[in-house]
TrEMBL record:
It is found in: Golgi apparatus membrane. Keywords: Glycosyltransferase, Golgi apparatus, Manganese, Membrane, Signal-anchor, Transferase, Transmembrane, Transmembrane helix. Pfam families: Galactosyl_T. It comes from Marchantia polymorpha subsp. ruderalis. It comes from the Eukaryota. The lineage of its organism: Eukaryota, Viridiplantae, Streptophyta, Embryophyta, Marchantiophyta. This is Hexosyltransferase. One of its GO terms (cellular component) is Golgi membrane. Belongs to the glycosyltransferase 31 family. Its main location: Golgi. It is a single-pass type II membrane protein. Its cofactor is Mn(2+).
Length: 420
């Protein structure tokens, strides 16, 4: 509270204007204002001389009139010994409060209430910052807020072991049938594999550009009989859409099934599911695993080349790809799959799917597992026997020249007999 005789300069705009009805001639600069008894007195300077000018009686003034007269926080009120404040307690409280606020502001001091509010704000800011760091850390580990949309526990109540998505197309019915006859169970056996072993297998396909046409109808009819498809309703099948299909598949699979691993397989590859499950189990202790037949190689910059990459210039003057898993079959641990699902909207897509997935991994703390049993070649005589000789077996069999198995619809049974 201000002591008697305290003084604060009038606001500049107040000091330069005439005040009140009783200002008389009013010429000259208003230097200060004070109370004399209960009259409001302005002190003006005219031509170097100081004059006191009574401008009105304050008796009966309400708060709004006082506030209008002393129209800013910068008020000059000079209290002489004979001067007194208005009898109205509300008016007196208003003036004292305004003067104390201005004094604290000019001295750099803060009231107790203001200090407490400031401390509360700082504590809240620290708490928010800590929560933001925790959220960022959780996201980096692949944490998702969405709950799985279907039952996805094994017989013993544990999390699923693996989700295997077999990429297929509209015209590949013969390939799918050859897989159903060899390494992918059907009907009740498919469900039994999910419940007892924690392994889900689905053919993965999108929709036709002409949604609802014969291609879509044939897939729907097949799925009604076999119940073994994951149909990506939001994805349109296309020759150069594999990278986008992978984004959609992983995001959808993560939402539907909570599993330790997510695998992608082409529909012309033979897979030994039991050995695949055992191999994946050996990497349970690693938080972020990217497994496949790791490779590198030339970046093709000519449009007429088979694996042409339109963004070839991004890979440097040597035009060589970074290490990545071959696209016929590869797997991602839960955290990496969830990372892709969370960030799918901002992950870049290259022309080739395997390069695209490898690029998503390149900036993360990831264990790149080069598992050569995922790319056994059927054309090499005795290769499967060689793996068996050393106590292991091929996990996946394909032909690099054909991408997957050459003539897979007719040869899948022979490969199974040789390599499983």
């Amino acid at each position: 509270m201000l002591a008697v005789g305290s003084e604060v300069l009038l606001d500049e705009h107040f000091a330069s204007e005439e005040v009140g009805a009783g200002s008389g001639a009013g010429a000259g600069e208003v230097v200060s204002a004070h109370l004399s008894g209960c009259s409001v007195v302005l002190v003006r300077r005219r031509r170097g001389e100081v004059h006191n000018e009574e401008v009105g009686d304050c008796v009966g003034w309400d708060v709004s009139q006082v506030e209008s007269f002393f129209c800013s926080d910068r008020i000059d009120i000079m209290f002489g010994k004979e001067d007194r404040l208005w009898e109205d307690a509300e008016v007196r409280s208003l003036l004292v409060g305004r003067l104390e606020t201005r004094t604290l502001q000019e001295s750099g001091l803060k009231s107790v209430d203001e200090t407490l509010k400031m401390l509360d704000c700082k504590e809240m800011q620290k708490h928010i910052a800590a929560l933001e760091m925790e959220i960022a850390a959780a996201r980096s580990q692949g944490f998702m807020l969405k709950r799985p949309a279907v039952d996805n526990t094994t017989a013993n109540g544990g999390r699923l072991h693996a989700v295997i998505g077999v990429y297929t197309g509209f015209g590949n019915r013969l390939r799918r049938d050859s897989i159903r006859k060899t390494w992918m169970p059907t009907g009740e056996q498919l469900k039994k594999l999910e419940v007892e072993k924690g392994i889900v297998i689905r053919f993965v396909v999108g929709r036709s550009a002409n949604k609802g046409d014969s291609s879509d109808r044939l897939i729907d009819e097949e799925n009604n009989k076999t119940k073994d498809f994951l149909i990506l309703e939001s994805h349109v099948e296309g020759e150069n859409e594999l990278s986008r299909k992978t984004k959609t598949f992983i995001s959808t699979a993560v939402e539907l099934w909570d599993a330790d691993f997510y695998m992608k397989v082409d529909d012309d590859v033979f897979v030994n599911v039991e050995i695949l499950g055992a191999m994946l189990a050996s990497h349970w202790d690693k938080p972020r695993v990217y497994v496949g037949c790791m490779k590198s190689g030339e970046v093709f910059s000519e449009p007429n080349q088979r694996w042409y990459e339109p963004e070839w210039w991004k890979f440097g003057d040597e035009k060589s790809y970074f290490r990545h898993a071959a696209g016929q079959i590869y797997g991602l641990s839960r955290a990496l799959a969830q990372y892709i699902a969370i960030n799918s909207a901002i992950l870049h897509e290259y022309s080739n799917e395997d390069v695209t997935v490898g690029s998503w991994m390149i900036g993360l703390e990831v264990d790149h597992v080069d598992e050569r049993r995922l790319c056994c070649a059927s054309s090499v005589d005795g290769l499967c026997e060689k793996w068996k000789y050393i106590g292991e077996a091929c996990i996946a069999v394909l032909d690099s020249d054909c991408g997957g198995l050459c003539d897979s619809a007719n040869r899948m049974s022979d490969v199974k007999a040789k390599c499983s």
